[in-house]
Structure formats: C-alpha cells, structure tokens
Amino acid sequence: MVDRPKILDDPITDVDLYQAFRLMKKKDFVSALAILNKGLKKEAVQADPILQGLFLSALGVLYKLQNDFKAAYKFYQQAEKLMPDEGSLKIITALLLIEEFAQYDTALKKLDKVMLSDGGDPAMVHHVRAARGMALYLMGKKAEARALLDEQLADDFTKLRSGANLDFKLIELFLRKNFEIVLCRLYLEKALAFVTSTKESSFIALIRHLLTQLPVVMGAP
After folding, report:
1. Short-list 53, 46, 126, 45, CA closest to 83
2. What are the tens digits of pLDDT across the range 137-167?
3. Greatest CA span in the chain, whole angstroms?
4. DSSP type of residue 11
5. pTM of this prediction?
6. Among 190, 170, 35, 188, which Cα is nearest to 95's?
7. Which residues 6+ apart lie within 8 Å of 171 measured at CB?
8. Would you tell me how many other CB atoms lie within 10 Å of the CB of residue 88?
C-alpha cells in the first residue's frame, strides 16, 4: 500500500508503476502498457482502490503521451472516481477538457470542486488559477483571465515549495496570443527569483529561456 499521492508533484513509489513510468520515458509504450494492465488486474483482486486509481491514472499518462486524448480522459476519469478527493486528477482532466475538447464550462466546474476540497493548498490554488485563466481566455473572457494572472502574481511563490509546482500554462497561452506581455514578464521574473532562491538549476535555465523569447513574441503578428 502506498500513501495517497499528490499526482501533480509527488513521486509514485510502487515498483510496477515506477517501472512503467521509466518505460514511458523511453517511449516503450507497449511494455509499459503490459505492466500497467497486469498491475491493474492485481490491484483489482486485492481491492485496493488507491492503487487501482494510480494504475488507471498511469494509463491516462500513457495514452496522453501517445496523443490519444479520448482514451487518456477515460482512464483519468476512472481514476478520479476511485480517488474523489484527489484534486490533482480533477485538474488534469480539466486541462484535457480545455486543451483538447474545448469543454470550458465542464472544466470550470471540475476546478471549482478542487477549490472546495483543496483550497488550502497553495500549489493546488496556483494550478487551478492557471487552468481557470486558460478556460476563461478561450471563452473570450479576457479580463477575467487577466485577473487570475494578477492573483497569481500577488501570491507568495515560496509557499509553492519547489519550482516543480510553478504553472506556466497560462503564461504560454498568453504569449502565444501576444496578450499581456508585461504581466507575463513580471510573472517569469518573479518565478526566476523564486527558483534562484531554491537553487533549482533546471528551472532557472527554463525561465531564463522563456524570458529571452519575450521580445520575439512581442514582435509577432
């Protein structure tokens, strides 16, 4: 038995799951699928809903990596039913609804449920605000989307604990649309200061790279 994870940021420690993720990283999806299907059957016999949910969410990851978003959503939904209190699964499925299926209202309802259950977790709030901002922007509610980026900027990033919890999806959307570039720069500069303080070199390099792209984005048509 493993402890209930935070899917967005905590490592999954079960040996079969770990091996499946290693294979997915190598793009050996056939072998990973075999491990996950075998593990899912085993956990179904043992009647452990948490581990069943973890295997189902891993299947969601596998199909998402292969761009089979319908299958990915199906498995994430099954995992969510087994782990209804796991807010990160709701965020993942909400993002699929936003990015792949344009079902913005349904996504917002999912995100509202996260705020009701995990509203005290700064990382969850951070991710929910980014996802809500994406949905609202794509619905044409640009002022409301901008307001959510303002809220993120007002937050204390140190409460996120790690650069791994920073969410760049809303920033990336705004940059693609050449929208609120100044706010995007402020967000990235604040994020850079945070990961510099935590000495996370990979995130420092990533954010510096994003900052160098801003002039190009600003000049885009």
Report:
1. 53
2. 999 999 999 999 999 999 999 999 999 999 9
3. 58
4. P
5. 0.86
6. 170
7. 149, 184, 187, 188, 210
8. 22
